[in-house]
Specification:
- This protein has 12 helices and 12 strands.
- It is an alpha+beta fold and 389 residues long.
- It folds into 3 domains: 118 residues, Acyl-CoA dehydrogenase/oxidase, N-terminal domain (Butyryl-Coa Dehydrogenase, subunit A, domain 1), CATH 1.10.540; 114 residues, Butyryl-CoA Dehydrogenase, subunit A, domain 2 (Beta Barrel); 147 residues, Butyryl-CoA Dehydrogenase, subunit A, domain 3 (Up-down Bundle).
- The strands form 4 sheets. The protein has a 4-stranded mixed β-sheet with strand order 3-6-7-10. A 4-stranded antiparallel β-sheet has the order 4-5-9-8, with no helix packed on it. A two-stranded antiparallel sheet has the order 1-2.
- Strand 1 and strand 2 form a beta hairpin.
- Helix 5 runs antiparallel to helix 9, helix 7 packs parallel to helix 10 and helix 8 packs antiparallel against helix 11.
- The chain is globular and about 80 Å long.
- It starts with 17 loop residues before the first strand and ends in a 5-residue tail after the last helix.
- The N terminus is likely disordered.
- Bound molecules: flavin-adenine dinucleotide (FAD).
- Flavin-adenine dinucleotide binds next to strand 3, strand 5 and helix 12.
Length: 389
């Protein structure tokens, strides 16, 4: 089942509805304000229909049971959604980063608990850089790969690795020339059945509980020379090459979570009555709704503008970092305000607001922290003004 654009009817205001905790739940996403073309709106609608049908009804259960939904992952792969920017000859959709960000947003709106980033749902992959002792300073990693006859021997650990427990193929970074620091790192492709490779039990996370995370262990893990990805000692180039676009595409996550938080809260405050009237008609609550609504739209405008620029070949490091920095902070705020709109029910796990806050919080550390993003943006400006210093 591949995504078929022509078969999907375009509606300007998307209003899929479903029941969650006994309440009707619709989206206020407005394709006109978002600036979507007809084709982009069709693409978004197709994903929205799939995500609301397949993911949304299971989001609470996945969060509660901390279970990775392998069947859904496969369906995402069949639709080509795990390879939006990949050429159709490799099973992808051959679209741009704007579409990729839209897909991420819609999947996250249905359930923040997924971080789709591989081309096919048949094989689940992982990207392993971080270690217990090296997170933000990732090039200080200590996993070693020593050259041996016909291949390499790996010893050490990786930590917090998304999809680690279920991945069949992993891209793993290791030191091949430790004395050369960041210039002695190589990227390797590891298959899960390589001897000497194992995974520890999955981590019990605060949020994103449908996406499994664990530690990887390498004990005299012997791998062939063909496992080298790119060139020996040039791993930092591979590592850095995708980071800007990764930050951009991940920004769709906070957007989707914000929209989901807002949609739920705005409906709730118009149903819930106190003092004889819907709580949403009290001015203090109107203020919350207005702030949430404008934060979503401002974030979306920035993220979409950066995505469109990237598709035109203008990949700006400061703006890719800015897109995820800004949308993440706003998503956490919107989820907090959404929780407050529900009063006591916001604090009850039968309602989705707590999950949305917990899922939004991941974006403040996953794929680099907010502090590192601020540092990157600041550093770009320092670089620009260097000659004046
Ligand atoms: C759910 C989850 C999934 C993840 N998935 C993956 C994955 O698939 N693959 C992978 O490789 N990694 C993954 N990570 C790891 C993630 O990239 C790191 O957690 C992140 O880069 C931060 O590293 P750290 O946790 O070691 O924090 P630290 O680097 O120890 O930072 C601690 C605090 O100090 C701040 N800090 C650090 N350095 C500076 C500085 N120079 N200036 C200002 N502040 C600073 C940080 O911002 C943070 O607030 C995942 C993490 C989580 C939580």
């Amino acid at each position: 089942m591949t995504f078929a654009r022509s078969a999907i009817r375009c509606t300007r205001l998307v209003r899929p509805s479903f029941l969650s905790s006994g309440r009707r739940y619709a989206s206020t996403y407005n394709a006109d304000i978002a600036g979507l073309s007809e084709e982009q709106a069709e693409f978004r609608n197709a994903i929205s229909e799939f995500a609301q049908r397949e993911l949304a009804p299971r989001a609470a259960e996945i969060d509660r049971t901390n279970t990775f939904p392998v069947d859904v992952w496969e369906k995402l792969g069949h639709m080509g959604l795990l390879g939006v920017t990949v050429s159709p000859s490799y099973g992808g959709l051959g679209l741009g980063y704007f579409h990729h960000t839209l897909a991420m947003e819609e999947l996250s709106r249905a359930s923040g608990s997924y971080l789709p980033d591989l081309i096919s749902g048949k094989k689940v992959g992982s990207l392993a850089m971080s270690e217990p002792g090296s997170g933000s300073d990732v090039v200080s990693m200590s996993l070693r790969a020593d050259k041996m006859n016909g291949g390499w021997r790996l010893n050490g650990n990786k930590f917090w690795i998304t999809n680690g427990p279920s991945a069949s193929t992993l891209v793993v970074y290791a030191k091949t020339a430790p004395e050369r620091g960041s210039k002695g790192i190589t990227a390797f492709i590891i298959e899960k059945d390589f001897s000497g490779f194992s995974t520890h039990q999955k981590l019990d996370k605060f949020g994103m509980r449908g996406s499994d995370t664990c530690e990887l262990v390498f004990e005299n893990c012997e791998i062939p020379d063909e496992s080298v990805l790119g060139q020996v000692n040039k791993g930092v180039g591979v590592l850095m090459s995708g980071l800007d676009l990764e930050r951009l595409v991940l920004s769709g996550g906070p957007l989707g979570l914000m929209q989901a938080s807002f949609d739920y809260a705005v409906e709730y405050v118009h149903q819930r009555k106190q003092f004889g009237q819907p709580v949403g008609t009290f001015q203090l609550m109107q203020g919350k709704i207005a702030d949430m609504y404008t934060k979503i739209n401002a974030s979306r405008s920035y993220v979409y503008a950066v995505a469109k620029a990237c598709d035109k070949g203008h990949v700006s490091r400061r703006d890719c970092a800015g897109a995820i920095l800004y949308s993440t902070d706003r998503a956490i705020e919107v989820a907090m305000e959404g929780m407050q709109c529900l009063g006591g029910n916001g604090y009850i796990n039968e309602y989705p607001m707590g999950r949305m806050l917990r899922d939004a919080r991941l974006y403040a550390v996953g794929a680099g922290t907010q502090e590192i993003r601020r540092m990157l943006i600041g550093r770009e400006f320092n670089e620009e003004f260097k000659s004046d210093l």
